[in-house]
Amino acid sequence: MRIVFCGVGALGSTAAVSCRNLDATPRFVDFDRVESKNVLAQAFVKQSIGKNKAEALKLQFSNFYGVKAEAMGVRLVEQNAAAVLGEADLVVDCFDNAKSRRLVSAFAREHQKALVHAAISADGTFGLVRWEERFSADEEDAEGQATCEGGEHLPMISLVSAALARAIQDFERIYLGQLIADCEGNASEAARRAGMDRPYLLTLLRRHGLR
Q1: C-alpha–C-alpha distance, residues 91 and 89, integer Å
Q2: What is the pTM of this model?
Q3: For the sheet containing 127-131, what is the strand order?
Q4: Taking the chain, what is the end-to-end CA distance rounded to the nearest angstrom?
Q5: Domains delineated in the chain
Q6: Fewer CB within 10 Å, N or C, the chain?
Q7: How far is CA 98 from CA 40, 94, 143, 145, 156, in A?
Q8: Is the pLDDT of residue 87 over 80?
């Protein structure tokens, strides 16, 4: 299973870290670079300052958790959407602007991709996690408006990121259930399609109450 995190700032990076135990290949998409102020509210360490956010998070996943991840340090546009999102089983939208969110939504709907959105207000007073069917992107008060730059909104960031991570974990159960159903209960075939060992697949199925 491949999970594509679109935007790995405050919400995206924090939720991704909380999903490091899933049997999935995370792909991080972000064109921005880590700044010193980001360390206060995002899941980056001091050594990552100056690096591309997607590449930095990929490196941290490898060094800290032994988890293999993919990184695409690009700005998502219509021309590269298929390359960035085409292989996703689940798309996680943590962008901070309506234009990018609408682009992700359009691609997901056209190609029938599962999509979950997460957002937090610029002043840190509220946040939300919603699946595509119930989400509508709000315009920023000002183009390029900064959000979650310091650590003062860290409690809200943690709450929203935790809710997002739980939604992603719930999707794993749905994904595995559909996979085993498509294979008519044949665990060996399901393991082959998922690219994992049969014993480990059975462990995951039991964990989710599917076996």
Answers
A1: 7
A2: 0.84
A3: 70-72, 25-29, 2-6, 90-93, 114-120, 127-131
A4: 19
A5: 2-173 (3.40.50.720)
A6: C
A7: 24, 11, 10, 11, 21
A8: yes
